[in-house]
Design a protein that fits this description.
285 residues; alpha/beta; Rossmann fold; eight-stranded mixed β-sheet; three-stranded antiparallel β-sheet; 11 strands; globular
Length: 285
């Protein structure tokens, strides 16, 4: 269920306590709980723009696309690859850059059906994304915030998920418990390749991210997931395009060419990498 517990003040890192519709810290900083149940923990001084993150329109497009369940195979891939020993006693899950909440909500449904005890928290820098998420699933604690400065204490979660987001590994390590897991989900070389060939005159060479490894984490499992799906209307095609960076990167000519399509069969090429937090050695003097 949504608890909004064990959170920290984004200004001074003091613990937050709840008093009905308000979260407050001992130094007098207060944060209102919205009508739909989320809380904004992104202070003005931490914003790089007036309305950071995905716009209202981008969130609506992503929600419309994801609700069609074209990407549900990604949910299945996450759950099937999740190290089984990690789910035995239940799990506290944090989705860093959760968007409008599709993945965290679907993961929660499946784990609940398996009678696995879960607690879920989702954070995104876009207030529009979190507003949509808070309407999608009332059993999750939804937060507006930044991965660069997570508003929660250390050792808070058993698993951090970062799906197509912007990872901040020092913060992920800080909020993960001793043997906590980190999941990175990213696009592979052939992801939406059919659409990209229409949008761009040439396709850039694919470069693997974090190929040198991560300082605070050990790689546990790396897996590729590839599947195809069909969009059979221009509305669906535009919803997908609007939720990707291609809407801004592609040329006018490329976007106009896509507008001529009535349907398209697309490849989804996804890379999943599970990491376990390194246990730091304590030097005894």
């Amino acid at each position: 269920m949504s608890t909004l517990e064990n959170l920290s003040c984004p200004i001074d890192a003091a613990p937050l306590s709840r008093d009905e519709r308000v979260l407050k810290c001992e130094h007098g900083h207060t944060y209102d709980v919205a009508k739909t149940g989320y809380v904004n923990l992104l202070p003005v001084q931490n914003k790089r723009s007036k309305d950071p993150g995905d716009s209202k329109e981008m969130v609506a497009a992503r929600q419309a696309f994801l609700n069609q369940q074209h990407y549900f195979p990604i949910v299945n891939a996450i759950l099937s690859s999740w190290p089984k020993d990690h789910l035995v006693k239940g799990v506290r899950i944090f989705d860093a850059g959760c968007g409008e909440g599709y993945y965290l909500s679907e993961i929660g449904k499946t784990l609940s059906d398996r009678d696995i005890a879960i607690e879920r928290t989702g954070l995104d820098i876009s207030k529009w994304a979190i507003l949509a998420a808070s309407k999608r699933d009332k059993t999750v604690s939804w937060l507006v915030g930044s991965n660069a400065s997570l508003p929660m204490p250390k050792d808070r979660f058993d698993a951090v998920l970062c799906l197509f987001g912007f990872p901040v590994f020092t913060e992920f390590s800080r909020v993960l418990s001793g043997d906590g897991l980190l999941l990175l989900v990213e696009s592979g070389s052939d992801h939406l390749i059919e659409l990209r060939k229409i949008l761009y005159p040439s396709i850039h060479e694919y470069k693997q991210t974090f190929s040198e490894g991560l300082a605070d984490f050990d790689l546990v499992l790396e897996q590729a997931e590839t599947f195809t799906f069909t969009l059979d209307s221009q509305i669906q095609i535009q919803d997908l395009l609007s939720m990707t960076p291609h809407i801004h990167k592609a040329s006018y000519e490329g976007r106009e060419a896509v507008k001529q399509l009535d349907s398209i069969i697309l490849t989804a090429d996804i890379k999943l990498r599970w990491y376990r937090k390194k246990i730091k050695e304590v030097n005894h003097v």
